[in-house]
Amino acid sequence: MLRKLLATTAVVTLISVPAFAETQTTAPAQNNTSVYMFDMNGLANAQMRGYLASNLIGKPVHVSSAEDAERVGEINDIVIGETGEVRAAIVGVGGFLGIGEKDVAVDFGRLTMVATDEDEFRVTTDATREELEAAPAYERPDYIPMGETMSSVRRDVTGAMDDAGTGVREEAAEIRQSLAETREDVRNEALNEGLSDRERWLADKTEIQQGAIDSERLIGATVYDVAWNDLGEVGEVVLTVDGQIEAAVIDVGGFLGIGAKPVAVAFESLRFFEDEGGTLYVAAPFTEEQLDQAASYDADTYQSERDSMLLIGMAR
């Protein structure tokens, strides 16, 4: 069976345009945030117009062509269907310096190339940041070799291949390795300097939708407060009559579970994250003091005293 083809930065593919707000008529000055159209002749000497996949990868995606338009992500790869049509763009969403970024497969029809004031094309989408962050994460299949997608790597490697002549492959490999090490150094430095507590906490985690959480996995998960400090862990869950999770009972305080106070927090008030190892983390929109002052959970009286016993807040 043929596997689906996933284009990488090494692939130079002429892509027909999904949608254009304006036709480009003059060759623009080079801008590494823009996409450029060009004309070319095919095998049958037929003229065609399009842009390169290698020019598209690494470009930012905005919500409009305005100079101050919100940037919602960056194109990391292009997915090509079995019959050769461009199906989707892999867009990196969220994170900081690539840390904590989530890849989302965006239908190519939801991207538009819009001419900027300089007559260069900017990639825009009608998808909101909220929609992209809530979308399921794209996971690269294990059987596809990992390729570099940084635009800086492509420029440096291409320049080395043009200039070096003999031995260029070895030099390009050294450049890739050096850039990878530099990027890792920058990431590690960013983790230790200049990040807020929230950014530091989220750096190695990916958010999970509530619908993907079951009670078995939730029990035992560590819970963090609004300041991203360890509050305690989930000791049990409260289910509705139809088996849905209504609340997580958080054991607050105590030592090794001794002397902890159980507090019922509404399931809808919580956010859920996991790290690369699959460990589940829970973020609660409360301070430790608020949980200390909240009513203790009592399974025997919960149904009759639910309104006073269930802690509800806005998920952060």
Task: Outline the structure in words.
It is a single chain. This protein is of the alpha+beta class. The chain folds into 3 domains: 5-134, Roll (SH3 type barrels), CATH 2.30.30.240; 151-192; 205-311, SH3 type barrels (Roll). It is 22% helix and 30% strand. The protein contains 8 helices and 18 strands. The chain has helices spanning 53-56, 129-134, 151-164, 168-192, 197-202, 215-218, 288-293, 306-309, and strands at residues 5-7, 14-15, 38-41, 47-52, 60-62, 71-80, 86-93, 102-107, 111-115, 121-125, 205-208, 222-224, 230-239, 245-252, 261-266, 271-275, 280-283, 310-311. An 8-stranded mixed β-sheet has the order 11-16-17-12-13-14-15-18. Strands 1, 5, 6, 7, 8, 9 and 10 form a 7-stranded mixed β-sheet that branches. The model is unreliable at 1-14, 22-30 and 148-155 (pLDDT under 50). This is PRC-barrel domain protein.
The tally of structural domains comes to: 3
Compressed to H and E, one letter per element, the order equals EEEEHEEEEEEHHHHEHEEEEEEHHE
- CATH homologous superfamily placement of the largest domain: PRC-barrel domain
Tell me the number of helical segments per DSSP (H or I, 4 or more residues long): 8
CATH topology-level fold name of the largest domain: SH3 type barrels
E-strand count: 18
Helix content: 10-25%
For this structure, what is the CATH class of the largest domain?
Mainly Beta
The largest sheet, given as strand count, sense and whether it forms a barrel, is: 8 strands, mixed
Instruction: Please tell me what the overall shape is.
Output: elongated
Sequence stretches where pLDDT stays below 50 over 5 or more residues: 1-14, 22-30, 148-155
| CATH architecture title of the largest domain | Roll
Q: Give the end-to-end Cα distance, rounded to a whole number of Å.
A: 45 Å
Spatial order of strands in the largest sheet: 11-16-17-12-13-14-15-18
Q: Kindly name the structural category.
A: alpha+beta
- Rg over CA atoms, rounded to whole Å, is 25 Å
